[in-house]
Amino acid sequence: MEPGKPLTEPVLLILMSLAAQPRHGYALIKDIETLSNNRVRLSTGTLYGALRRLLEDLWIERFEQEDTSRDKQAYRLTPEGRRQLQLELERLKQLTRVGIARLRMNEA
Amino acid sequence: MTLAYRLLLWLYPYDHQVCFGEEMQSVFEQAAQEHRGRGRTAYLRFLVAEYGGLIVGLATAWTVKIAGRGYVHDQRLIRTAALAPRPHEVQEAQERLTANLNGLLHAISHHQFVKARIYAAEEQKAREDLRLLRERYNITESGDVV
């Protein structure tokens, strides 16, 4: 992920999903479906490609849980991941504000 | 369906298989079970999306690997258990297998089928050597020392 560049939708949704609590792969897919009103369903190929990049950039980390099996590792946001998510949401908020202002200008 | 999924997964870079292979397959199986219950069309749509995503992911993983931003140097990605020290010959066998697999994929992508056949035979031999070494040192496929 290049700093300052807008995040892709899968990455943004993964970060949003993990912002609330750590999740496993399947729980992430289900939560992202809910977050996006069933508009986005990530395939495992897309999900794990994005998770790999996020792990490399240290925006998320694997969360070892003693009571879970090896094929059900959980992921959680790192402080850096949380910061990047906040930055992206700020960027989107700013964009929305400008967009709405332009619409109003046209209506007035 | 799981077999086809596993076959595609097998084409991913070795490190990706070690880091995420089991997990991806497990998630796929859970999702497949859920979609099977939603009817034939929903299941077919799910399969198309899954295999499509897997193929795109495969291309991306190899691009990343070839571009040098791979997984091997990044130990944070490998599961803690897989970081346990392994005998030198196991590591060598693993590297030989990866090299042959890379050669095989490169040959296929360049339509060099005679070369691909040679790599395929070497890759099979390297895989068998690795299996025997793992057996000897009691190491599981994911790298754990039992």
Short description:
The complex is a heterodimer of chains A (108) and B (146). With 108 residues, chain A is mainly alpha-helical.
Q: Explain this structure to me?
A:
The complex is a heterodimer of chains A (108) and B (146). Chain A has 108 residues and is mainly α. Chain A is 60% helix and 7% strand. Chain A is built from four helices and two strands; from the N terminus they run αααββα. In chain A, strands 1-2 form a two-stranded antiparallel sheet. In chain A, helix 1 packs across helix 2 and helix 1 packs across helix 4. The model of chain A has no long low-confidence stretch (mean pLDDT 88). Chain B has five helices and no strands. The radius of gyration of chain B is 17 Å and the shape is globular. Chains A and B meet through helix 2 and helix 3 of A and helix 2 and helix 3 of B.
What descriptors fit this protein?
A: 108 residues; two-stranded antiparallel sheet; 60% helix; elongated; B: mainly alpha; 5 helices
